[in-house]
Design a protein that fits this description.
The protein is of the alpha/beta class. The protein is 52% helix and 11% strand.
């Protein structure tokens, strides 16, 4: 990393320079703020390390001058000062400094800060490269058509490789339009609700990237995948030596990585209850402490969250804070399941087929009429993710130009199983309103013993366990009822 080192004290400057060289960084020196500013304007310096107290132009003035330049937003400035000037150091942080160091400089602290800035700069470069790649593809898309729908599909599906949003139905077009609207105001938290596999993270990225030129970091955290004991340090980060087993360099946490960008809380309903208040405080006050830290850290973060469960129910159960729920839900997006938007099923299938055929060198790009009917009639419990996985499997398994109905054996078997279960439920449900003079037996088989047991259990429940009333209701003797109940008990024992 190229570092601009500014200090009017030659001995101090040389000492810091030599250490930075040892740990692998390239250093350009300046003995005053004016010279440093000229060097900065003509060079590329991800990090500036400057003394505060200098003649003519102070470190604070240099910081302000750098911040006013277009490239200044991508530069991390660290200032150092003496022990007796803490107020100036605090003023530096408020002015936008990344951090500060006390003189004489502790080389371990300098190494830690330098490494953190290197990580931050890597993240900025990755996001910038992503944005530039997207920008190139966007130009190609807009040459083909100016329609918003096509531009969104090309931008998100191809440029960011977000598993092909596939904006085909009016329903998804409305969702995407709302997502782009929310992008305009980073202060509004947005809660995205939808079933598993419906594409919540894709929509979250659309809210973040918005105009498709966003270079700020997008940092996701799966709240369900982090153990409660580690969640606080994973989210807030921790200082060096905060706890046994932690990194000796500390950890800036997901909040630190997302600063200036977006934090996406996936499966937000799984956040431990004891930490929900701390998260609420970060959202409201826009500052937080790392674990073991004493310094407040500013949080310039857009908060997006997603869930596939009923958070209102969790609020009623007392396992999710009501105030946090309403704070996360200032903006609200609901992604309907795939079964409720059939207009998307066939276009999505064709899109996935083309994607995987290109990857695997196959020619599967069409769907037979029978195959289309099967896809449209299936319930898709796994939503878009299930459809995408199925198309990938078919492309892998078959060498053909057209998907035939026989290739869809996976979902036809699932549908048959579901139909069998539904028939069983309906048959059992019909017993509730059975008309003894008007009913129809199943054609294939009728397990009379099973149905007799069901009738007896329901009759016993209806009469709250009173065997005399139950026997009278069933028009059988008490002895017959006791024999049947004994048979049921033996059956339960054998099953257990």
């Amino acid at each position: 990393m190229h570092i601009l080192l500014v200090d009017d004290d030659k001995d101090s400057r040389m000492s810091v320079r030599d250490f930075l060289h040892e740990i692998g960084h390239h250093v350009t020196e300046a003995n005053n703020g004016e010279t440093a500013l000229k060097l900065y304007e003509t060079g590329d310096f991800p990090m500036v390390l400057s003394d505060i107290k200098m003649p003519k132009m102070t470190g604070l003035e240099l910081l302000q001058a750098i911040s006013s330049l277009p490239m200044g937003k991508q530069t991390d400035v660290v200032l150092f000062t003496g022990y007796g000037d803490m107020e100036t150091a605090i003023a530096a942080l408020r002015a936008g400094a990344y951090d500060y160091l006390l003189k004489p400089i502790n080389i371990e602290e300098l190494a830690i800060i330098t490494e953190k800035i290197a990580e931050h700069q890597d993240l900025l470069r990755e996001n910038k490269a992503l944005a530039e790649n997207f920008d190139n593809r966007l130009k190609i898309a807009t040459q083909e058509t100016q329609q918003e729908l096509v531009r969104l599909k090309e931008a998100v599906a191809q440029s960011y490789n977000l598993h092909n949003v596939g904006i085909f139905s009016e329903t998804m077009q409305r969702v995407c339009t709302e997502a782009l609207k929310y992008h305009e105001d980073r202060s509004i938290p947005v809660l995205i609700q939808g079933e598993t596999g419906s594409g919540k993270e894709i929509i979250a990225k659309m809210v973040h990237f918005g105009n498709l030129k966003e270079v700020r970091p997008f940092v996701p955290i799966n709240c369900a995948a982090v153990t409660p004991s580690l969640f606080e340090s994973e989210l807030f980060g921790y200082e060096p030596g905060a706890f046994t087993g932690g990194s000796r360099k500390g950890n800036k946490g997901k909040l630190g990585l997302a600063n200036g960008g977006t934090l996406f809380l996936d499966e937000v309903g799984e956040i431990p209850l004891e930490l929900q208040g701390k998260l609420l405080r970060v959202i409201q006050e826009k500052e937080y402490y790392r674990v073991g830290g004493l310094k407040k850290i500013s949080a310039d973060i857009r908060f997006l969250s997603a869930t596939n469960i009923d958070l209102k129910q969790k609020v009623r159960e007392g396992s999710f804070r009501k105030d946090l729920y309403y704070r996360l839900k200032v903006g609200h997006l609901v992604i309907p399941p795939l079964r409720e938007r059939p207009d998307d099923i066939i276009p999505l299938s064709l899109m996935f087929l083309k994607e995987f055929s290109k990857q695997k060198g196959k020619n599967l790009t069409k769907l037979s009429k029978k195959a289309q009917n099967i896809l449209l009639q299936y319930n898709w419990p796994g939503n878009v993710r299930e459809l995408r996985n199925l198309m990938e499997w078919i492309t892998f398994m078959y060498d053909d130009r057209e998907v035939k109905s026989a290739y869809l054996s996976k979902i036809t078997k699932e549908k048959m199983k579901e139909r069998t279960e539904n028939i069983s439920e309906k048959t059992e449900g019909n017993l509730r309103t059975l008309d003894i003079n008007n009913f129809t037996l199943p054609k294939k088989s009728f397990p009379v013993e099973k149905f007799m047991n069901i009738v007896i259990k329901k009759a016993l429940d209806m009469h709250k366990g009173n065997k005399t009333e139950t026997a009278r209701y069933l028009a059988i003797s008490r002895r017959s009822l006791y024999c049947r109940l004994q048979h049921l008990d033996e059956e339960l024992l054998n099953n257990n």
